[in-house]
Amino acid sequence: MKCFLVYVRCVHEPQAGSERDYESRLPKPLAELKRWLVSHHMTLLAIADTPHSIALGSAIGIFFGFTPLYPLKTLLSIGVAWICRCNKVAAAIAVTLHDVLIWAMPAIYVAEYQFGCWMLNRPVAQRVHFYQFRLHDYVHWHVFSRVIWPTFWPAFIGSLFLAVPSAILVYILIRLLISRGRASQKVE
Length: 188
Hints:
Elements: H1 2-12, H2 21-25, H3 28-46, H4 51-66, H5 73-83, H6 88-100, H7 105-119, H8 141-187
Helix pairs in contact: 1-3, 3-6, 4-5, 4-6, 4-8, 5-6, 7-8
């Protein structure tokens, strides 16, 4: 176990000036994504919990990452992980994956919204120009009810068609990876 912790520390804290060759060949966004995935994969392996608990926490985090509940994603994923008695750290790590993919998320949110409008048989809302509103208008309920609320339900319904399959896939992959990773540690 001590040897494993040293390995994890070396992965998380690279030596100064030691950049891997394969990272320099990747485009910068992909290199950052790969670096994040490698470091957090080792974090998930180091969590002292069952593979089911870690995989379910990760799936819950991925699910909430795709929903349009922007300010509440992390809190909701940790809360649902607590209710389901699975790993809360894994849920928090998985929900932050969407922060790494921040450059792609606006396109995904727009696609979810348009798919939700299509599923609900609603027309896609026209573009809202926020310069029409004064600062005083933002504290009133009518701005929320006219601007935010009509776009929430289509975006939420559309996000379910991406969030549920992604969560199922992540659960299967994480459980498989953690089970195999821990089995190989026991053999060594």
